[in-house]
Specification:
Elements: H1 9-41, E1 47-50, E2 53-56, H2 59-83, H3 87-102, H4 104-109, H5 113-137
Antiparallel strand pairs: 1-2
Helix pairs in contact: 1-2, 1-5, 2-3, 2-5, 3-5
């Protein structure tokens, strides 16, 4: 009779995937909540100027871009875990840099103070939810 105990790594993977999926969904829900608070409730019109044209930022745009950014962050974390022993630290640094670069969009393209502040706030909300939740799932 073999009394060898199998490592618990396979059981940890589904939990890690679930936690990461929930982190992405929570981030998307948080930014959509922020959009609802700013646009229909507070009456802000989040307009961005790009190339001489103005475009309103819709709930669909907020949800889709947050979802895609969250999935990209998840993919980068998984990739870093595969190829480096310091994935958590590297990913956190990259996440901070991505946040700073992402803020250039609303700071340079927001049409008016209210739109700019709203868009910056949405970026900060996304980072405030996604970074700690995904970082927590990283292998140590």
């Amino acid at each position: 009779m073999d009394t060898t105990i199998a490592p618990a790594v396979p059981a940890a993977r589904p939990a890690r995937r679930r936690d990461r999926a929930l982190a992405v969904l929570a981030t998307t829900a948080a930014t959509l909540t922020g959009w609802v608070a700013a646009v229909p409730v507070a009456g802000v019109d989040p307009v961005v100027r790009t190339g001489g044209t103005e475009q309103s930022v819709t709930a669909v745009a907020v949800g889709a871009s947050t979802l895609l950014a969250g999935l990209a962050a998840w993919a980068l974390l998984a990739l870093l875990e595969r190829f480096t022993a310091r994935a958590r630290a590297a990913w956190t640094g990259v996440a901070g840099l991505v946040l700073l670069v992402s803020l250039l969009g609303p700071l340079g393209g927001g049409a008016g103070t209210a739109a700019t502040l709203t868009l910056v706030a949405l970026h900060l909300v996304a980072a405030a939810v996604l970074v700690p939740l995904l970082r927590r799932t990283a292998r140590r």
